[in-house]
Design brief:
This protein has one domain: HAD superfamily/HAD-like (Rossmann fold), CATH 3.40.50.1000. Helices cover 25% and strands 26% of the residues. The strands form two sheets. It has an eight-stranded mixed sheet with strand order 1-2-3-4-9-8-5-10, sandwiched between helices. Strands 6-7 form a two-stranded antiparallel ribbon. By secondary structure, it is α/β, with parallel strands linked by helices. This is DEBR0S4_10748g1_1. Pfam families: PNK3P. GO terms for molecular function: ATP-dependent polydeoxyribonucleotide 5'-hydroxyl-kinase activity; double-stranded DNA binding; polynucleotide 3'-phosphatase activity.
Length: 220
Amino acid sequence: MRMNRFRQFPKSMLIGGEIYHYQEIRYRKNCERIGSHMLRMYNDKFLSIRLGDKSLTGKKYSIAGFDMDETIITTQSGTRFGHGAWDWCIKYPEVVSRLKELETIHSNDDTIKVIAIFTNQGAINNTKRSKSLSGFTHKISSIIKKLSTLTSLPIVIYAATRDPQANKNVLAKKAAKIARKPDIGMFQQLLNDINATKEDVSYQDSFFCGDAAGRPGRFQ
C-alpha cells in the first residue's frame, strides 16, 4: 500500500508552562517536517530504533553527536555557502576513519550507538512548497547515503530551520529558538524519537563535536 507523502501526526510540547500544538508531517522517505521549527531525516537503522526494536529494551544510548557544516562536510566549490544540493563533500579524510571506529569503540558494552547530526539551517524555509527545503532534503539525503556506506550505525540528521517570522504564533517562534544550537531542542527531539530520557543516555560514552561542544548547559 502506498503511503501518503504528506501524512500528518499531531504533536505537542511544553514551552514556558504553555502547551504548543504542532504537526509532524511526512515530507519524503525517512524524513519529517517537525512543526515549522525543525526537520528530521534518518537511515533505516535509526528507523528501527524509532519503531521500538524489542532487542534494545533496557539498554542505554551512546550518542555520537556532530555539527554538520565545516565538521562533517564542507562545500565542494570552496565557497562559504553551497550553491546547490550537490555542492558538498566530506570535510576531513579523518571523518571516514573516525566514523568506522565508532562501531568498534566500547564494542563489548551494552549500549546502543547512534550518530546524530545537529545543524542550524536558518536559510531553510520549512513549508511544504519551499524550494529551499526541497533542495536541502535532497542534500542531506545524499549525505546520509554516503555516511551509511562508512558505518552500519543508526544515523539521524536534525536541522533547526528558519524562524517563522511571518507566523504570529508566539509559541512557534519560541519553539524555533529552542531548536537552534546552542540550545538543546534538537537533542531533546532525539530523546523523544528514541523514547528515552536523559537518564537513558550513557554520557561517559557520548560526545558532541562541533560549535556548541563544551559550553556549560549546552548539549550536556
